[in-house]
Description:
- This protein is of the alpha+beta class and 59 residues long.
- It contains 1 helix and 6 strands.
- It has one helix spanning 49-58, and strands at 5-6, 13-14, 20-22, 28-33, 37-38, 41-42.
- It has a two-stranded antiparallel sheet with strand order 1-2. Strands 3-4 form a two-stranded antiparallel ribbon. A two-stranded antiparallel sheet has the order 5-6.
- It is globular and about 25 Å long.
Amino acid sequence: MAKKAFCQSCGMPIADDSYKGTQANGEFSTDYCIYCYMQGRFIQPELTFDEMVEIGQKV
C-alpha cells in the first residue's frame, strides 16, 4: 500500500500530481499542494497555519 502524501503547509492530502505544487523550475513539489505553493513560492506567505488548514478544508 502506497504511503499517502500530505501538504506540509496546510495538511491537505495530495492524492496525485494534479494536487502537487510546483518548484521554480516547473518540477512538482514533494512537500506542498497547489493551494499553498506554486512556481517555487508560497501563494499566501502571510497566512498562519490555522488559516491554511481552514482553506484546505474548504477545497
